[in-house]
Amino acid sequence: MTTAATRHSDRRVSPVFVGILAVTAVTGWATWSGFAAQPGVAVFLFVTAAWIVSLCLHEYAHARTALHSGDISVGAKGYLTLNPLKYTHALLSIVLPVIFVIMGGIGLPGGAVFIERGRIRGRWRHSLISAAGPLTNVLFALVCTAPFWLHALDGVPQDFRFALAFLALLQVTAAILNFLPVPGLDGYGVIEPWLSYNVKRQVEPFAPFGLLFVFALLWVPSVNNVFFDAIDSILRGMGIEDFDRYCGQELYRFWQGTNEFCQVSR
């Protein structure tokens, strides 16, 4: 084939993404080795860079699945290069999720690759394209929590353990929020192909406000408590205790000062 979507340059990994990976590796090493003069700064940079990597992989999964499902336009749009600057809404996919991590410690769902759905045939393919992104967050969460549920924490420095726990929290929250069957989120994209035309037409006007609706609900104390209780239960099931998750978030927010409680290992 000679389409633009199949050119090698359209699939070459972007230097921007390589740079983000490099920051993740260097700051991860600094967190592991204790090399950084301020551990909190190293953890902040490591978790933030790793979070951006996961956002890029989330969008890449959507695009790659769409490519194999029939939308050959994703290559020409730059979605296969893992370059976040190529996304339709870089602000929504990268900047805003990072701000939410800093402010509230929650994995905000992104949404930035434009899939030409008319090129794709078959409801299962449409559903799989939508599911591919949050499934990437699930996989990322499994990788982050592997040392915990494999009981392989011997020799893992405390600060690095805390950072992994907080990063896992972000991945789990992102996966759950993305899988909600709310218009505008991936979860709705999974079920949308199976809905009737009339239902889809009635729901469509609400799609731009779906994420705002979800976060408005999370401001309700009772809903917020139920949501984070569920998150904590999932993390405990994956081997992460509240202590690790809490101290990871505290260490990430280095500008708030040192938390003496987290400096004492259990």
Automatic annotation (TrEMBL):
The keyword Protease applies. Coiled coil: none annotated. Its cofactor is Zn(2+). InterPro entries: Metallopeptidase_M50B, Rip2-like. Keywords: Cell membrane, Hydrolase, Membrane, Metal-binding, Metalloprotease, Protease, Transmembrane, Transmembrane helix, Zinc. The chain crosses the membrane at residues 12-30, 36-57, 90-115, 127-150, 162-185, 205-228. GO terms for molecular function: peptidase activity. It is found in: Cell membrane. GO terms for biological process: proteolysis. It comes from the Bacteria. It is a multi-pass membrane protein. Belongs to the peptidase M50B family. This is Site-2 protease family protein. It comes from Streptomyces chiangmaiensis.
